[in-house]
Design brief:
Elements lengths: L1 H33 L42 E3 L2 E3 L18 E3 L7 E2 L12 E3 L7 E2 L12 E3 L18 E3 L21 E3 L23 E3 L18 E3 L7 E2 L12 E3 L7 E2 L12 E3 L20 E3 L27 E3 L24 E2 L6
Parallel strand pairs: 2-3, 3-5, 4-6, 5-7, 7-8, 8-9, 9-10, 10-11, 11-13, 12-14, 13-15, 15-16, 16-17, 17-18
Antiparallel strand pairs: 1-2
The protein binds 2-acetamido-2-deoxy-beta-D-glucopyranose (NAG) (2 copies).
One 2-acetamido-2-deoxy-beta-D-glucopyranose binds next to loops.
Subunit structure: Binds to type I and type II collagen, fibronectin and TGF-beta. Forms a ternary complex with MFAP2 and ELN.
Keywords: Disulfide bond, Extracellular matrix, Glycoprotein, Leucine-rich repeat, Proteoglycan, Repeat, Secreted, Signal
Main location: secreted
Length: about 375
């Protein structure tokens, strides 16, 4: 009897437990959804339902209705005083360029002419990029308002002359690939701040650069006049010059006079000319030269003055007509007079039989691998 009762009790308890639990869980769930307890985050399958994309009209009205707001030429982009108008097929310098602009990029357009007032308001401009247009004429007063201009890029146009009245603040002028035939003495008058000058790939004639044309450029460090038809190294170059690139011209002779006073010159490029003579004393005039390129010329002997030169380290002489190399051509008789060893000498493609060159010729060369002797081809 007691055991039946007990078993009945257990049975009812056993049956009762699941039901009670179900009820308890139901209550909990009800409680959660009622808002008292913190709700776990709901992740919707499509977030745009909860975060709809802002509608265009909600921000658009702000710009056009602000009358004193920043202006920007149609189709250009203006941001942080930089005005970007490249590759737009423009035929003129656009109007309404913000007056406080510092950089104006007009490259790759179809501008044919720079008019008197094109840059009239741009008194704070630092950089003007006009590369790859069709400019033939620049008004003589066009650049006068640009009182802070430092960089002027005019390459790849059809200019016949270097522009007049460039700002005296200019530090960098790039005007290669134009149709300039002449650089007159007065062209760069007073341009005391120029550091970089790139004038290559212009049809500069035989006497295309007047003596002293660069003499006002007291701070100039880099001049490049490559791929023109000049037959001489320009005279009266400033002593500040550290790199002079004159490759691809028709220079026939290195005159000592042309290099006089270039005490800072470190690199001299004269590859691809018609040089058959390097005058005695030329190298002595450039005592700090480190690199000299004379490859692809018409030299028949090693240039004089190399053994006495203290700093020259790299000399290209390949593709010339050098038929003999002596043991005293590169190095001084005694070791210690040369302050820097050679790190590169190229002599291949010369008629000298390389097996006739004595190894002792290169006694002041840093490493054997620094010498490119090779075979004379053709
Ligand atoms: C360059 O100038 C010459 C005259 O000096 C002219 O005949 C030639 O057409 C010009 N080149 C271009 C591309 O305008
Ligand atoms: C070049 O100068 C050296 C001395 O530095 C001299 O011995 C030589 O004769 C000169 N050569 C010419 C062609 O003047």
């Amino acid at each position: 009897m007691r055991s039946v009762c007990l078993s009945l009790l257990l049975v009812s308890a056993c049956w009762a437990l699941p039901f009670q639990q179900t009820g308890f869980l139901d209550f909990m769930m009800e409680d959660e959804s009622s808002g008292d307890a913190p709700t776990p985050p709901v992740i919707p399958k499509d977030p745009s339902v909860f975060f709809p994309k802002p509608q265009e009209p909600s921000i658009a009205p702000f710009e056009p209705v602000r009358p004193e707001g920043p202006v920007c030429p149609f189709r250009c982009q203006c941001h942080l005083r930089v005005v970007q108008c490249s590759d737009l097929g423009l035929k003129n310098v656009p109007e309404a360029i913000p007056a406080d602009s510092t950089l104006l990029d007009l490259q790759n357009n179809k501008i044919t002419e720079i008019r008197e007032n094109d840059f009239k308001t741009l008194k704070g401009l630092h950089t003007l990029i006009l590369v790859n247009n069709k400019i033939t004429i620049i008004h003589a007063k066009a650049f006068m308002p640009l009182g802070k201009l430092q960089r002027l890029y005019l390459s790849k146009n059809v200019l016949k002359d270097i522009p007049a009245n460039m700002p005296k603040t200019l530090q960098e002028l790039r005007i290669h690939e134009n149709n300039i035939t002449k650089i007159k003495k007065a062209t760069f008058q007073g341009m005391v701040n120029v550091i970089v000058m790139e004038l290559g790939s212009n049809p500069l004639t035989t006497t295309g650069v007047d003596a002293g044309a660069f003499s006002d450029l007291k701070k100039v460090s880099y001049i490049r006049i490559s791929d023109t038809a000049i037959t001489d190294i320009p005279k009266g170059l400033p002593s500040s010059l550290s790199e002079l690139h004159l490759d691809g011209n028709k220079i026939t002779k290195v005159q000592a006079e042309s290099l006089k006073g270039l005490k800072n010159l470190a690199k001299l490029g004269l590859s691809y000319n018609d040089i058959s003579v390097v005058e005695n004393g030329s190298l002595a005039n450039v005592p700090h030269l480190r690199e000299l390129h004379l490859d692809n010329n018409a030299l028949t002997v090693i240039p004089p003055g190399l053994p006495e030169h203290k700093y020259i380290q790299v000399i290209y002489l390949h593709s010339n007509k050098i038929a003999a190399i002596g043991t005293e051509d590169f190095c001084p008789p005694s070791y210690n007079t040369k302050k820097a060893m050679y790190s590169g000498i190229s002599l291949f493609s010369n008629p000298v039989p390389y097996w006739e060159v004595q190894p002792i010729t290169f006694r002041c060369v840093f490493d054997r691998s620094a010498i490119q002797l090779g075979n004379y081809r053709k």
